[in-house]
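Lab channel / #folding
Pinned by the channel admin:
"Please post every new chain as: sequence first, then the structure tokens as a reply. Keep commentary short and put observations after the output so the thread stays searchable."

First post following the new format, from NK:
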Amino acid sequence: MKIALVTSNLRGGGAEKVFLRIASLLSAREHEVHVILLEHLVDHAVDPALTVHGLTAPGQPCRKGFIGKRVAAWRLRRLVRRLERDGAFDLIISTLPFAD
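Reply from TO:
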């Protein structure tokens, strides 16, 4: 299966660690897993088997508020369309409020 897991960023503690653990477990079962970050902010070790995509430059937060959400949605739609050129995602899961 081709799976996209979308979250705001990988900073912080529990939820982000669980997110990465789930992504690694899915990858270990030979699924094609894409981790999509609205902000390319990473504080945790990432399994090299995972493909990570950031909608911003590494270390750069995204803009907040109405405009920031619209820009993030546009970038996300553009990225998903590009990634689906090789085949559609079977499953897309978003986590945490800003990513929904």
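NK: The radius of gyration is 13 Å.
TO: also worth noting, The first strand starts at residue 2 and ends at 7.
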